[in-house]
Design brief:
By secondary structure, the chain is an alpha/beta fold. 40% of the residues lie in helices and 19% in strands. The chain folds into two domains: 1-31; 41-171, Rossmann fold, CATH 3.40.50. It has five helices and seven strands, in the order ααβαβαββαβββ. The model has no long low-confidence stretch (mean pLDDT 88).
Amino acid sequence: MVYAILIIGIITNVALTFFTVVFLSSFAVMAVGAPYVPCSVANRERIRVSIRGRKRVLELGSGDGRVMCDLVAENGIVHGYEINPFLVWISRWRLWRFGLSRNTAVYRRNFWKYDFGEYDAVCVYGISYMMERLEKKLLAELPAGALVVSVGFPFPHWELARQYGTVRVYEKE
């Protein structure tokens, strides 16, 4: 009985420590990015349908990898850029666990420092203060015909192609 209580205490302590570190690290990375907010199941489905059939997909702020798991089944290669090291670890574990790591990669990167020219679809669950700057970057770097799916926040000047609830789809001409 004492050993069972001890084991439960250790497991609880480890779990609380892990989630505390993830929670606090989310606040730390907010200085350079957006906070971690999981995407709803309905929005994940809207993203999946919007991006279906693309060769190279990039998710900016890929969080815990759930959206990447949804996208890899119907697209070629799916990459995720995430700045939070704990979420990168969770994403990689999730993709490995479901056998999806062959056509995916999660990078611990600040996406402002990388070029998006190789991707024909980009998905972002951004935040209002970054959307104008991100719009300029995407328009300058993406190839013609690329799709951009934004969850939550619109791009201020880019003409909307279609919208499903809070999921907005843009096409680069």
